Every structure is written in C-alpha cells, then in structure tokens.
Amino acid sequence: MRKLHLAKIFGAKAFDRESFARLADGLAVALVVSLPWSTSATGILAVLWLIAFIPSCDPAGLRRIVLTPAGGLPLVLVALGVAGMLWADVTWAERFDGVGSFLKLLFIPLLLHRFSRSNAGRNVLLGFLLSCAALLLLSWMLTIFPAIPWIRVNNNLGVPVKDYISQSAMFTVCIFAILQLAYEKWRGGLRWLAAILVVIAIVFLANVFYVATARTSLVVLPILLVVFGLRLFGWKGAIGMVLVFLLLAAAAWPSAHYLRQRVDNFFLEVRTFDPNGNATSAGERLEFWSKSVRFIGQAPIVGHGTGTIRELFARAAVGKTGMAGQVAVNPHNQIFAVGIQLGFIGIAALLAMWAAHVLLFRGPGFAAWIGLVVALENVIGSLFNSHLFDFTHGWLYVIGIGIAGGIVMRQSAALSRDAMRQDNMTRTTGR
To answer: Any idea which of 35-39, 156-160, 278-282, 301-305 has the lowest mean pLDDT?
Structure first.
C-alpha cells in the first residue's frame, strides 16, 4: 500500500511537470506572437512564461546548459552588469535602471533548456512569422488606404505599432526565414509553394524599401544575403544573391522616395557634420561615438559602472551647444554601451557571447538558420544601435537565440544518441 501511495505521488508530480511544460510552450507561442505588436504584452507574457517554466525545469539539465558557452556567457554578462553597480558613481536608482538592461539575457539559458527538451520549437518560430505577416498586411493596408482610422507612429503611415527600426528589423528576419522555407520546399519538390514563399519574402522586402526603411537594415540585408548564398550554394550563390539584391534595389530606387531620402540624408549628414550644429541621425552617432571612446579610455578595464552612461554624457555636455550639448541615454552602439559601464572586461564578455551564439548555429537546418540570422542581425545592427539594451531588439535576440538554439541542441543530442546506438549495433554485430 505504501509503495502504491508513493507511486501515486510521484506520478502526480510527473503529470504536473508535464502540464507546466505544455503551458510554458503555449505561453512561448503567445510571447513571440506579441513581440511585433505590444511591449507591455511581451513583458507580461515573459513573466508568465517564467512562472510556468520553473515547475517544469530539470535542474540537472539546466546546469548542463549553463556550463555551455551559449548558455553560460549571457549569465557572465549579467553578473558583470550586477557587479558594475558597486563602483558606479551615480544614484542607486540609476544603477538599478542600468542593470535592468542586462536582465533579459537571463532568459537565454532558460529558453535553451526548455526547447532542447520540447518538440514545439519550430511551431513557436512559425508563430512569429505569422504574427509578422499579420503586421505586414496591416502596414500595407495603412499605407495604401491612409484614411483607415489608426493611431499613427511618428506620422509614418505604414508603421502601425512600435517604430520603423523595430519593424524593419523583424521583417528582415522574416525575409530570410521565408527564403529558407522556400529552399526547403523547392528541394522537397513543392516548387509552386516555394515560388509563393519567395513572393511573400519580396513583399516583406518591399515594405523595408518603401514603408519602414531603417538604414541599419540596408546594411544588414546584403550581408545576410551573402551568408545565405554562401551557406547553401557556395561563393557563386553568395555573389548571385548580392546581384539579385542590387537588381531589386535598383528597380525600387526610382519610385522608393523614402528609401532615396534616407540614403541621401545619410551622406549629407556625414558630410555636413558639425558637433555644434543641429541634430541629425548620423551626426548624433558620430558625436556619441567620439565621446564614448573617450569615456572608455578614462576607465578602460572595468568601466565607470552600471548605469553611468547618462551621467557621463551629461557631464560632457555642460557648456556645449548643438549635438555636443545633447545628453544621451545610450551611445547607439552596443559595444560602447557595455564598454562605458564595464570596460574591456565587459566588451570581452559581450564579444564572446556573440561568438558562442553564432557558432551554435553553424550547422544545417531551419532552426540553425533562424538562429544565425537573429545573431548576425543583432551583431551588425548593434554597431549602429544599442540593440541588446533596447526592448524589442533585445527580446528578439533573446527569444530567437533561446528557442532556435534549444532546437539545435535537441537535434544535436538526437544525432549523438543515434550515432551511439549505431556504434553499439556495429560492435555487437562485429562480435
């Protein structure tokens, strides 16, 4: 009787763990679907996912994830951010505000652990694509029919929520995810479906060209095309992809007024840069970057401490006018944003984390490609923005790396088990 009672208890615990695991997978779908639309919903769903994840967590499995570079280095960067609060010469409110930018990275090993054990990862990634497709449809509707009642974001008709930089970044990820799906369908003989997917990818690209043109995306797109072509078709494929992009850009250039304006303004802003002049997007970056280099030089090893960016820019702006007199809350460069606060030690941790995540996705397959796209988009975009510390871009990185990385780890573990099984069978047969 006692053995039967214990079996019931442990059976109930196992059932509860599986129930929470399924709930966590469902909340992960809701989390990725909310990301293109709502900041508050994403924050709430992230907390709910964490609550559901904890009872389903296997401590031993999580420990193994944390001991990998992909799972452990985000924790190192967070730990440095927390430690940096100790030597920051600002108020504790500013220190806590600064460390908050790091905390979302804690979700990376948790997501890696969950989706290395779940078979729902691919459906979660597809949920993100469908959510972005709905946003794409609404964006085009508001662009073509501006009379539709909607609260405009920065007077941009085609940006129904958030901002054009976030929309452009998410659509860039979608373009390459859809191209990978098209390649898989083409290889599988579904040529008609592959053609439809390519058309959808072009519609996403047209939105980036005509509606929500972020200059960062214009840098990211050709680089990812090179990687995509090189990964699947070698150097000839890489060159071909770039030529296709240049042809599409050339075809869009005469009619894409917003695209031309963004590109022309960039060169004009750089050419006419004056620290004491009126603020421009490119000019602000040049000014912030020059000051950031100086700040890092003042405390090169461990930085000025977590939460000190605004105070340092405020001190440097005293008595200045124009862009030189602006007080920045971030330097529009992720390496500088970490280096100012944590010095070369923090920069080394950041670069090591990026490298670990890029290497995690060096294999074939849909999940590996999505993870690589998200990682490279963040690395390249972070040269011009503090993307890891931004809400939408930071969560895009955390979710993309965590879920895609978990799938890759699951597939790798399955291949290892199959190899061991095959090896054992070979030895048995040999005997």
So the answer is: 278-282
CA separation (Å) from 35 to 97, 203, 298, 391, 410?
22, 20, 38, 10, 25
- 325: DSSP letter: G
H/E element, 79: helix 69-83
- 125-154: pLDDT as tens digits: 899 999 999 999 999 999 888 877 776 666
Does pLDDT of 178 surpass 50? yes
pLDDT in the model for residue 411 = 86
For every residue of 85-120, DSSP letters joined together read TTT--S-HHHHHHHHHHHHGGGHHHHHHHHHTT-S-
Q: Shortest CA distance to 394 belongs to which of 45, 9, 104, 153?
A: 104
User: For residue 350, is pLDDT > 80?
Assistant: yes
Let me know: does 366 contact 122? Beta carbons within 8 Å.
yes
The vertex-131 CA angle with 130 and 133, nearest 5°, equals 60
**Tens digit of each residue's pLDDT (9 = 90 or more) over 106-133:** 999 999 999 999 888 888 989 999 999 9
For residue 85 the two structure tokens come to 């609060």
Nearest to 304 by CA among 362, 269, 344, 271: 344
pTM, to two decimals: 0.89
Reported residue count of the chain is 431
Read out DSSP for 13-25?
HHHHHHHHHHHHH
Query: 115: closest CA among 406, 383, 326?
Result: 406
Pair 194, 414: CB distance under 8 Å: no
> CA 331 to CA 418: how far, in whole Å?
49
- C-alpha radius of gyration, the chain, whole number: 24
